[in-house]
Write a structure and sequence with these properties.
Elements: H1 23-34, H2 37-46, H3 48-62, H4 74-96, H5 98-106, H6 108-114, H7 119-135, H8 139-152, H9 154-157, H10 165-189, H11 194-219, H12 229-241, H13 253-273
Helix pairs in contact: 1-7, 2-4, 3-8, 4-7, 4-10, 4-11, 4-12, 5-11, 7-10, 8-10, 10-11, 10-12, 10-13, 12-13
Length: 281
């Protein structure tokens, strides 16, 4: 009777579970983060601009002359989302700094990847945490604000020439959440300390913003503005919502290209750092 060699076979989950294996990672990490009262307080503060913008819509509908100073067209949502970038940075620092760093420090990443999880499942699970947090202060509030605008001023928003506002909100929110989420996750994977990872992420963003200001003042070249991730996101938002930015005349393709390259670099870092075998040197 012949004997066949039985080689190693990766464990495969049941069919219905194959596409959602990352969800338990996202769910448990969110549960731990949202259990902190300080973090909930930060989320509450991040929603205050929503209240201010809702009041702006109400005031303009009651006093139309105020619309000259406080417009309530598509620019309202672009300015709101650009304003929320600062809160997204804070959420990414406090919520994302330890997502991978803590697993590297404790060795939990080896346990994760020894189970029926791929590296892609692990990265998607961790990235899902940051996307959920970031969408919570960008996409969610912006859509609520859009709904308020439709309810309070339907003559302004329920028009064929304003139908682009909702898709622009979704697109700009996705760009903000995706880019900053990937950068924060890559920074977390480069250290075993959540504190160092958070400082590294904040230092990178602040350093690029400082370099933009210095080079822009010295060279007077508008291309210097693409050095800042925050400014790149704002320039894309201005293009999505038709906001004219004074003193900056950079083609939209420049910030889009820079942000695309940043995302590719972050994915390359995650591919190199997230592994099932620890390399000791």
């Amino acid at each position: 009777m012949p004997i066949y060699d039985q080689t190693y076979r990766r464990y495969e989950a049941r069919g219905p579970l194959r596409q959602v294996r990352f969800w338990p990672i996202t769910r448990e990490a969110l549960r731990l983060i949202l259990a902190k009262r300080a973090f909930l307080g930060l989320l509450g503060v991040a929603l205050l601009p929503l209240v201010v913008r809702a009041v702006q819509i109400y005031v303009v509908t009651r006093v139309p002359e105020a619309g000259r100073i406080l417009p309530i067209d598509g620019r309202l949502f672009g300015e709101f989302l650009n304003q929320q970038i600062g809160f997204v940075l804070l959420l990414s620092v406090f919520g994302g700094a330890g997502l991978i760093a803590n697993d590297l420090r404790t060795g939990a990443i080896l346990i994760y990847l020894s189970r029926p999880l791929t590296r892609r499942d692990y990265v998607f699970g961790k990235l899902g945490v940051l996307l959920a947090l970031n969408f919570g202060v960008t996409l969610g509030p912006a859509l609520v604000l859009y709904g308020i605008g439709i309810a309070v001023a339907p003559e302004v928003f329920v028009r064929a020439d304003r139908a682009w506002i909702a898709p622009a909100i979704v697109l700009h929110s996705a760009v903000i959440a995706g880019v900053l989420g990937l950068v924060a996750l890559a920074a977390s994977s480069l250290s075993r300390s959540a504190r160092i990872a958070g400082l590294g992420f904040f230092g990178l963003v602040a350093g690029l913003e400082t370099a933009r200001g210095i080079l822009g003042a010295m060279s007077h070249r508008p291309e210097a503005h693409v050095l800042s991730l925050q400014h790149d996101l704002r320039m894309l938002g201005n293009a999505f919502f038709g906001i004219a930015e004074r003193g900056v005349s950079v083609p939209t393709s420049y910030p889009a290209l820079v942000l695309g390259l940043v995302c590719v670099a972050c994915l390359a870092i995650l591919r190199a750092r997230v592994r099932a075998v620890e390399v000791v040197r």
